[in-house]
Recover the amino acids of this structure.
């Protein structure tokens, strides 16, 4: 099963590499991007698209990391609350046991009528 997974990942990587090569070869037309007064140098369209794709990967990874960090902080906070609640439950259980040991058992009077 492990070998099948490795072969599958290798095939996906090869397909992605082939797609990338065909994409670059198919988009060799030069273009520039203008944004207000800034203008980029003339580069192939594929270059711009790859830059945007990489920027998206980095931004997505950063946002995922932030969400994961926030979730970990929440988990840590909840674990502390659970530990506190367990200690409180243990203390209350001990108090109940102590109170029960102090209660005198009074035998019930038998009624005969």
């Amino acid at each position: 099963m492990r070998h099948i997974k490795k072969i599958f990942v290798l095939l996906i990587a090869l397909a992605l590499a082939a797609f990338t090569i065909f994409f670059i070869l198919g988009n060799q037309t030069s273009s520039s991007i203008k944004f207000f007064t800034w203008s980029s140098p003339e580069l192939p369209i594929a270059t711009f698209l790859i830059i945007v794709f990489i920027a998206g990967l980095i931004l997505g990874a950063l946002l995922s990391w932030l969400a994961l960090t926030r979730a970990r902080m929440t988990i840590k906070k909840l674990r502390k609350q659970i530990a506190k609640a367990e200690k409180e439950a243990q203390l209350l259980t001990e108090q109940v046991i102590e109170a029960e040991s102090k209660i005198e058992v009074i035998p019930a009077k038998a009624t005969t009528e």
